[in-house]
Specification:
Bound molecules: S-adenosylmethionine
Distance between the termini: 58 Å
Radius of gyration: 21 Å
Number of helices: 12
Strand order of the largest sheet: 7-6-5-8-9-11-10
Number of strands: 11
Shape: elongated
Helix content: 25-40%
Structural class: alpha/beta
Order of helices and strands: EHHHEHHEEHEHEHEEHHHEHEE
Strand content: 15-25%
Length: about 290
């Protein structure tokens, strides 16, 4: 721990923010690497004559901030971590940085299965950093989960995130194309969740450079219309889900009605488009018969 005067720190902070960037990314850097939360900082700043403790020196924090500004690299990749729900997850450019709007997918599951002692058998397709599966495995300790991804590097990060933060052993990881690594579990899954790549090709080309240049293309691009992967997941779901099993999908802001139709075409019932906190139909859910 390094001890530094509040005055010096605030002066340094002002200088860093004057170079550009946004306050959220800067606060993220301070919290994840410096060990200072925003509420900590607010308290400390009351007494300008006081001192504060940092986990890393200002030069080190500044070098990360400069790299972030120079290359437009997401601060989470530079810091090597992200916060998602109550999890602190390791992230590298091999995995998508899990988004705040995706947090709601876990609440949708809570809503469908309010009893946390439930012995669910769930599968997450395209787990990336493992965020969704890890949150579910923690929340339902008597459940068993299967988390898949086509990218072995992503799976290694997800596995590490799980083993670093849990003594449980109720989540297993499988590499392969959507449902294919789960052949032996056909007809046995209570609940399947996926936040697949759903960005249409034209939109992908226009993504901000901090996303397009750094986050894995395989995690974002959903083919020409964005629905390439969603279609495959829905079409094969009836083979893997138990009768009345739920499929919960995240989709792009304007895909809800099309995804709903895909659910209907594949004999799902109880289909709903669930809005995110901005009122966008971000999730489509249904039950297999
Ligand atoms: C949008 S990211 C979601 C990651 C994570 N679940 C989250 O919500 O942050 C989509 C994930 O699907 C994986 N993926 C892409 N194509 C796949 C495929 N054909 N089969 C399995 N996983 C795939 C990507 O590697 C990526 O990790």
């Amino acid at each position: 721990m390094l001890c530094i005067s509040v005055k010096e720190f605030l002066c340094w902070k002002k200088e860093q923010l004057s170079k550009g960037g946004d306050i959220q990314s800067f606060s993220f850097l301070l919290e994840s690497i410096g060990g200072i939360t925003t509420s900590n900082l607010n308290l400390i700043s009351i007494n300008l004559e006081g001192y504060l403790h940092l986990k890393k020196n200002l030069e080190y924090l500044e070098s990360i901030w400069n790299e972030h500004l120079l290359k437009s690299c997401p601060i989470q990749y530079l810091c090597g971590i992200t916060f998602w729900r109550d999890l602190k997850l390791k992230v590298t450019n091999k995995v998508l940085i899990p988004r705040p709007e995706t947090e709601l997918i876990v609440d949708i599951v809570f809503n469908k299965y309010p009893n946390k002692s439930e012995k669910l058998f769930f599968a997450e397709l395209g787990t990336g950093s493992g965020a969704i599966s890890i949150a579910l495995a923690f929340a339902y300790p008597f459940s068993n989960g299967l988390a898949t991804d086509i990218d072995q590097d992503a799976l290694e990060i997800a596995t590490k995130n799980y083993t670093d933060f849990s003594k449980q052993s109720n989540l297993k990881f499988y590499c392969g194309n959507w449902w294919s690594p789960l052949e032996i579990f056909k007809g046995k899954i209570d609940l399947a969740i996926s936040n697949p790549p759903y960005i249409p090709k034209d939109t992908y080309e226009k993504l901000p450079k901090e996303v397009k240049n750094f986050e894995p293309k395989i995690a974002l691009l959903g083919g020409e219309d964005g629905l390439k992967h969603i279609r495959k997941i829905i079409q094969k779901a009836p083979l893997y889900l138990k009768e009345k099993g739920w499929l919960i999908l995240e989709n792009h802001f304007d895909q809800g009605e099309k995804v709903k139709q895909l659910f209907i075409n594949n004999k799902f019932t109880s289909i709903e488009i669930v809005k995110d906190l901005s009122g966008i139909g971000r999730f489509t859910i249904g039950r297999y018969k």
